[in-house]
Amino acid sequence: MDITKKTFGQSAQLITLTNQQGTTLAVTDLGARIVSLTFMDRELILGFDSAEEYLEKDAFIGATIGRTAGRIDAGKFTLGGQTYQLPVDPATGHSLHGSAPSFEEKIWQYEIIDGEQEATVIFTTTSPDKERGFPGNLSVEVRYTLTEDNIWRVTTKAVSDQLTLFNPTNHVYFNLSGDVTQPIDDHTLWVNSHAFAELRPDSIPTGEQLEVTGTPFDFQTPTKLTTVFTSDFPQKELFDGIDHPFFLKETGLDKTAASLLSPDEAIKVSVRTDASSIVIFTANFGEDTPDMRGQRLANHGGITFETQIAPGAERYPSFGDISLVPETPFETITEFKLEAREEQDR
């Protein structure tokens, strides 16, 4: 595995792993973030060319999100009989992604492990007690691994010294066309999910899990995303696309949870995870899109697979449990398998 390092601005570093097939994974210690993923000479994800651009334009893109991914209603939760108040976004009155700035703007420590069949960058940070309002001193480790068989693996570990909430994810956006000026309309999506979380107009879950069958959110058979964008489905209309948690029928690294096929059907990304849901966001930015690597990002120019417990779990136990017991190790793993057309046909 070839490994290179260079400066990325804002005292951040960019580490690039390249396997024998020429697949590259570039990551930075700013936000323990994926910056680039190239396969078959094609860029598969959204990203910027410098740390400054992430901080100026969108610090969530590609970043490790924590302590809690998604929105917390009014930034308030009760845990162990105590109520906690997080900083909220003045525009919405809610906490988003652990109340920014959080994990996505930290400079993490890192080390590199070069193995025979894979290479790993291990990022670590400590979130002190009461940081962004959360209880407990939390130690976090995020491992990004590239394998020789073209798997990008994300392993997140943590331990806290107090009862706290922890529900991390990675905020990568895929666009398998390699052209960010092209929306993802003609990508084909498959998700092994029977239900999604209904959202209020302010993006907060209602607590209801709605069946996907008979709706444009049914991806139990491979479906082009244009089906959603051209529909008048009320949940789509609220956000001009998808911005919803999908509850998985099965979990585990031996089962595919979702897959995305490029418009030319040349490249497929398959997602495997031990998480119970995937938040799918179709980059519903409207006209307000950033310039990215010299091109203007299209509306619906990317799609996320934010593997996690569904946001809202702090209020709705049926979504899952995001409490982290003191001195109890947390671990979650998600894999993204990259395949070319000839591999798909085998």
Could you walk me through the main structural features you see in this protein, from its secondary elements to its overall organization?
It is built from four helices and 31 strands. It has helices spanning 51-57, 226-229, 234-239, 341-344; strands at residues 2-9, 12-18, 24-28, 33-39, 42-43, 64-65, 71-72, 76-79, 82-85, 95-96, 109-114, 118-127, 138-147, 151-160, 164-165, 169-170, 173-174, 188-191, 193-199, 205-211, 223-224, 243-248, 258-261, 267-273, 277-281, 291-292, 295-296, 303-304, 306-308, 323-324, 330-340. The strands form nine sheets. Strands 11-12-13-14-31-24-23-18-21 form a nine-stranded antiparallel sheet. A five-stranded antiparallel sheet has the order 1-2-3-4-5, with no helix packed on it. Strands 20-19-22-25-29 form a five-stranded antiparallel sheet. Strand 3 and strand 4 form a beta hairpin. The longest helix is centred in the N-terminal third of the chain and has 7 residues, at 51-57. The protein is globular, with a radius of gyration of 19 Å. The model has no long low-confidence stretch (mean pLDDT 97).
| CATH class category label | Mainly Beta
- Poorly predicted runs of 5 or more residues: none
Looking across the biggest beta sheet, what order are the strands in? 11-12-13-14-31-24-23-18-21
Helix content: under 10%
Number of strands: 31
Tell me, rounded to a whole number, the average pLDDT.
97
End-to-end Cα distance = 26 Å
Number of domains: 1
Q: Which shape, going by the Cα principal axes?
A: globular
Structural class: mainly beta
Write the CATH architecture name: Distorted Sandwich
Gyration radius over CA: 19 Å
> What is the makeup of the main sheet?
9 strands, antiparallel
